[in-house]
Task: inverse folding
């Protein structure tokens, strides 16, 4: 009956998540009987062509990265390498130049790790507790702030960047990793809070009531009742944050100094640096290396990834 | 006011513009089994949640054992609660489920073990202690949920529709068990249900609720035989009471309810106040308070009716009749059968009938 | 009521449920200080002549006049319009057609979905760089087609100021259509299967069923997808930086890049604030009607 006070409208934004579950559920009904018919040839033909289009860039990236520069200059980008070389990969990782630095992407990689790991942990910790408070411990005004938060998710980052720069500068952490972690926590908050709030609101309310009668308080219920029941949603949130933060470029450029640049920024600096001869094989190896982490997360997590991005799609 | 266990004073609760409970008063005696009965949305569960401390009240006070607990935490109120969906912690074993609250309260280990053992003996769930809730049947889960309230060693038990998720057979089994539990423990129990059979069989007193207001608070027999108003009369009993809308007429030293051109002689009705000629009333007759006889001409105080539909139910036989153009139900013994179309005569026991004022809907 | 021990009265409302309030402090700070405060701050300062540092000396609409006189801003807006319209149309059409194909109870659905969605896991930087390479006239698609015998074949969008924005569009579609397909597929799966049976019994051809029955039923999914694509479009930045750096010349500039460049490189904060306020207005124009339709008039949530 306390549903009466529940504020349901924003919950609709989680609809993509429910929809994603339907996608995951797969097709309904019986399998097709005839394998070969005009209709099937058309459907599969189209899908295969489309699939090739999606795979083409990945294929070209890998092929280019395994060739030497002379072969690239002579040959065709679609042709497999005549002579496979891992030289470009080594160079991209360890010695490609960005301006004056020539220590490759490795520094960017470790920076990204140092940004992504704490940002993911902090943002999820804050958002999950907050979502739990919003779902189970409603207080006056909470929904108003939550609505502002969700609406804020649609405001272009460019509008809020400069005020954040000022705030971080006043706090003395502008340009540091701590500052960037706070920024990622802020901008991850709307979607994560929504995700956790809706998840916790979906758990049986009577469970929460039973725990209160049993004398458990805010934190005891969170850690001993809610957390053990919510591992899947934590995994979804983790996928969302790891890929999102790893792929970020804008915040990396704005809020850190060059020595802390994340991998995406460094990749862009290597590839688009105007000095020297363009080494396309190194560029492609560097590009694959940068994309490897989210791709790995994508292929390993599979179905949960679909849930994560469908939920994260609200972030725009 | 001696021996009052739970007392609710002028309790109100509203969510925004919606008033769920309206200046409600209720005293529950020590050791009493009180059932809050009503259809969904009547505020019965809300009231229970307020007593448990799971909802903040808008106005009024709640006392448990003479202590004002209106703003106390649930755990400090001396209550145990059993929920409809069992609400067992899925990741904990039965034993952990039972002991969780005691652990949180930092009760010594030996004491926890003692209480868990006692509760599991009473409820016969010892073999299940190591299992997870997902490995239990519905009935077993609800036993564990009752056990969780039991180990708390409290004076007041709150049940929120505890049997509604069970199938009919289990429901009646557990119903008997809850009654037995109450007889042996003698705790105060407050039990919310929408099932009138549960209410009638379990309760010492029933509070029938509608729109956040208690319509009648009385023992089951009073509720059944002398409903305070039209709502209670219609809500209790299955099939429900037959109602005839009409007018009171006093002539020749007798009283009649004149409805649809038929006169019902209500001179035997034990009314509380003198009946007034011309008053608009509703006459209520329970299906089992009607006598059915073969049609015989000349029976003066009887009414003629035609059998419309017959519903044999084994022990009983339910007849749907047409009387004065209105459909009514009559319960007779199972072995007495009437084919549809049969003409019968009816006579009524007005001593157990109910008459309500048509406008105020209150019992006369 | 003499028998009752009077407990404490109604406790302080501020202290009640204190833990939940503490847990919400980061959210409240973010919502009020950053989202609300930051936005207002930027809008206010867009009316000042701040250069290197923000200064509160108001100059009215000067910054906006200068903004709309700047060729680079006009190109940016034009690019955003072209990119926005085409990416909306193409993602919706391609996404829907792919979803409809995927919904034909096909085999290997998982495989196809995995392939179509993987680009979405990649960053815009990676996407932009891959397509920069594929569209490289010297080595990429153009040179491959030419070396196959079609000597006059020309396909160099990234080096042609007139069509550079379409080169960016191709990369964006590659990255994002998989997601649209997934959302659409979810919408299709949400439609009662009896609709299809009824349409077949009535003898309605499949394409007609899609257009006249199914698509109208998927209104909600279309609107959600539209909002997702649209608010992504306004923010497009990384992709342009990686793929063209705004070139050739200023031909592929976009508003988000204009804001960044004026705020952090040209040190003309006022221009940056004015431009970002324009972005805010654009988003508001997209979001407000949608929010009104979704949450406002008619649909009451009690």
Result:
């Amino acid at each position: 009956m306390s549903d009466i006070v529940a504020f349901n409208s924003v919950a609709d934004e989680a609809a993509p998540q429910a929809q994603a579950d339907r996608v995951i559920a797969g097709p309904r009904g019986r399998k097709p009987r005839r394998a070969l018919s005009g209709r099937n040839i058309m459907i599969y033909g189209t899908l295969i062509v489309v699939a090739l289009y999606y795979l083409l860039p990945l294929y070209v990236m890998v092929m280019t990265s395994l060739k030497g520069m002379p072969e690239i200059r002579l040959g065709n980008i679609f042709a497999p390498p005549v002579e496979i070389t891992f030289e470009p990969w080594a160079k991209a990782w360890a010695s490609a130049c960005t301006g004056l630095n020539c220590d490759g992407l490795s520094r960017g990689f470790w920076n990204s790790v140092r940004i992504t790991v704490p940002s993911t942990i902090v943002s999820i910790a804050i958002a999950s507790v907050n979502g739990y408070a919003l779902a189970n411990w409603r207080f006056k005004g909470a929904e108003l702030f939550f609505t502002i938060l969700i609406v804020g998710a649609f405001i272009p980052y460019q509008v809020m960047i400069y005020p954040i720069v000022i705030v971080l500068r006043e706090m003395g952490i502008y340009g540091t990793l701590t500052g960037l972690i706070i920024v990622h926590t802020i901008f991850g908050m709307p979607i994560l809070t929504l995700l956790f709030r809706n998840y916790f609101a979906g758990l049986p309310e009577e469970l929460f009531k039973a725990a209160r009668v049993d004398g458990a308080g805010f934190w005891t219920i969170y850690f001993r009742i809610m957390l053990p029941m919510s591992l899947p949603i934590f995994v979804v949130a983790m996928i969302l944050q790891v890929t999102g933060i790893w792929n970020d470029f804008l915040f990396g450029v704005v809020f850190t100094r060059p020595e802390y640049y994340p991998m995406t920024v460094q990749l862009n600096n290597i590839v688009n640096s105007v000095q020297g001869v363009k080494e396309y094989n190194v560029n492609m190896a560097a590009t694959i290396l940068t994309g490897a982490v989210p791709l790995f997360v994508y292929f390993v997590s599979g179905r949960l990834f679909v849930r994560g991005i469908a939920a994260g799609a609200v972030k725009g | 006011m001696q021996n009052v266990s739970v007392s609710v004073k002028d309790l109100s609760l509203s969510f925004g513009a919606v008033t769920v409970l309206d200046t409600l008063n209720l005293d529950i005696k020590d050791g009493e089994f009180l059932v809050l009965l009503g259809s969904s949305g009547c505020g019965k569960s809300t009231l229970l949640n307020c007593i448990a401390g799971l909802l903040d009240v808008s106005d009024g006070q709640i006392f448990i054992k003479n202590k004002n607990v209106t703003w106390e935490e649930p755990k400090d109120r001396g209550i145990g609660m059993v929920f409809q969906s069992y609400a067992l912690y899925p990741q904990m074993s039965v034993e952990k489920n039972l002991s969780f609250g005691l652990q949180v309260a930092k009760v010594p280990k030996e004491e926890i073990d003692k209480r868990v053992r006692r509760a599991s003996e009473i409820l016969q769930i010892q073999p299940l202690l190591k299992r997870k809730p997902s490995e239990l049947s519905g009935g077993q889960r609800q036993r564990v949920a009752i056990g969780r309230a039991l180990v708390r060693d409290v004076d007041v038990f709150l049940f929120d529709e505890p049997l509604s998720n069970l199938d009919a057979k289990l429901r009646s089994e557990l119903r008997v068990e809850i009654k037995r539990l109450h007889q042996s423990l003698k705790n105060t129990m407050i039990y919310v249900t929408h099932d009138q059979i549960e209410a009638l069989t379990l309760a010492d007193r029933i509070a029938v609720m509608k729109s956040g207001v208690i319509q009648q608070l009385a023992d089951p027999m009073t509720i059944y035989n002398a409903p305070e108003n039209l709502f209670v009369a219609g809500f209790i009993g299955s099939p429900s009471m037959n109602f005839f809308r009409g007018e009171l007429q006093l002539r020749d030293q007798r009283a009649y309810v004149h409805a649809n051109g038929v006169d019902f002689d209500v001179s035997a009705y034990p009314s509380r106040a003198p009946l007034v000629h011309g008053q608009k009333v509703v006459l209520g007759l329970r299906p089992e308070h009607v006598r059915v006889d073969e049609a015989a001409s000349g029976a003066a105080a009887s009414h003629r009716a035609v059998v419309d539909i017959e519903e044999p139910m084994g022990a009983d036989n339910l007849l749907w009749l047409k009387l004065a153009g209105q459909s009514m139900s009559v319960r007779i013994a199972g072995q007495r059968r009437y084919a549809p179309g049969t003409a019968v005569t009816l006579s009524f026991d007005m001593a157990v009938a109910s008459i309500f004022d048509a406008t105020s809907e209150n019992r006369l | 009521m003499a028998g009752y021990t009077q407990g404490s009265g109604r406790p302080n409302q501020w202290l009640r449920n204190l833990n939940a309030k503490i847990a919400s402090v980061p959210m409240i700070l973010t919502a009020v200080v950053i989202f609300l405060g930051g936005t207002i701050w930027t809008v206010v300062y867009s009316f000042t002549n701040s250069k290197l540092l923000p200064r509160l000396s108001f100059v009215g609409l000067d910054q906006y006049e200068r903004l709309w006189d700047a060729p680079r801003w006009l190109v940016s807006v034009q690019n955003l319009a072209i990119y926005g319209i085409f990416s909306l149309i193409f993602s919706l059409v391609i996404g829907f057609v792919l979803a409809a194909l995927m919904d034909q109870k096909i085999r290997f659905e998982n495989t196809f979905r995995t392939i179509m969605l993987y680009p979405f896991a990649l960053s815009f930087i990676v996407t932009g760089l891959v397509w920069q390479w594929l569209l490289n006239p010297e080595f990429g698609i153009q040179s491959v087609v030419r070396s196959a015998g079609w000597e006059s074949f020309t396909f160099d969008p990234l080096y042609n100021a007139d069509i550079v924005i379409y080169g960016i569009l191709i990369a964006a579609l590659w990255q994002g259509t998989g997601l649209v397909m997934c959302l659409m597929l979810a919408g299709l799966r949400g439609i009662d299967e009896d609709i299809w049976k009824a349409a077949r019994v009535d003898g309605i051809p499949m394409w007609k069923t899609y257009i006249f029955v199914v698509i109208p039923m998927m209104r909600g999914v279309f609107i959600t997808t539209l909002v997702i694509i649209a608010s992504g479009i306004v923010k497009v930045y990384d992709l342009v930086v990686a793929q063209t750096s705004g070139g050739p010349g200023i031909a592929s500039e976009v508003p988000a890049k204009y804001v960044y460049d004026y705020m952090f490189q040209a040190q003309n904060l006022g221009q940056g604030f004015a431009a970002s306020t324009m972005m805010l207005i654009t988003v508001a124009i997209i979001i407000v009607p949608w929010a009104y339709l979704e949450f406002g008039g008619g649909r009451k949530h009690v």
About this structure: Confidence is low (pLDDT under 50) at residues 1-7, 298-302 of chain C. The interface with chain B takes residues 1, 3-11, 16, 302 of chain C (CB under 8 Å). The domain at 63-295 of chain C is CATH 1.10.3720.10 (MetI-like fold). The longest helix of chain C spans residues 71-102.
